[in-house]
Design a protein that fits this description.
- By secondary structure, the protein is α+β, with helices and mostly antiparallel strands.
- It has 2 domains: 56 residues, no CATH class; 108 residues, Sandwich (Immunoglobulin-like).
- It is 27% helix and 31% strand.
- A hairpin with a 4-residue loop joins strand 9 and strand 10.
- Helix 1 packs antiparallel against helix 2.
- It is rod-shaped, with a radius of gyration of 26 Å.
- The model has no long low-confidence stretch (mean pLDDT 84).
Length: 175
């Protein structure tokens, strides 16, 4: 009967360690870009209706191609801002945004500013001016402390489980 109890206990412990939701495989963090728009139009504020992020390998963007939508990769805009996520960005980029005033404006050519790039886009009457925002804290440093703490907690839980199993096995042998 004690072996049956031990088996039931092990099944409960194993079930508690399994994830409560479906786990999905992924290749890890992906580079992102965030675009915040600043308006300097004499005609008044406009909203974004659609947009394209062009990727370029050449500095003059003569080889410009839209960032393809592949799974999580893509370029998306709300009415006031845009964001991009990719498996990897090219070195150079150019924005083409259509606004509620019916005008499609194209930006200057800009370089990738980092893994999690942030840009300020100034809306001008005929074009867009993209400038990288300086970030003092590198994005890769976020999450390291959390990962270490979770790993440490997992090790403690595993040690407690192994200790409980050893305790119950020795206890059952003494009886």
């Amino acid at each position: 009967m004690t072996k049956f109890r031990l088996l039931v206990l092990l099944l409960f412990v194993a079930q508690a360690l399994l994830p409560a939701q479906v786990a999905l495989a992924d290749t890890g963090p992906k580079p992102t870009m965030e675009f915040t728009f600043k308006q300097s139009l004499p005609s008044g504020p406009v909203t974004i209706t659609s947009g394209i992020l062009y990727e370029c390998d050449q500095a003059d963007c003569s080889d410009a191609a839209p960032l393809p939508q592949l799974g999580p990769q893509g370029f998306h805009c709300d009415i006031l801002d845009c964001r991009a996520l990719a498996y990897g960005f090219s070195d150079y980029h150019q924005l083409e945004i259509q606004f509620s005033d019916g005008v499609t404006r194209r930006s200057n050519i800009f370089k990738t500013a980092g893994f999690d790039s942030k840009y300020t886009v100034t809306i001008q009457p005929n074009d867009l001016q993209v400038e990288a925002q300086f970030n003092l804290v590198p994005s890769f440093s976020f999450g390291v402390v959390e990962i270490v703490l979770v790993s440490l907690c997992a090790l403690i839980v595993i040690a407690l489980i192994i200790g409980a199993i050893v305790f119950f096995v020795r206890r059952s042998r003494r009886q």
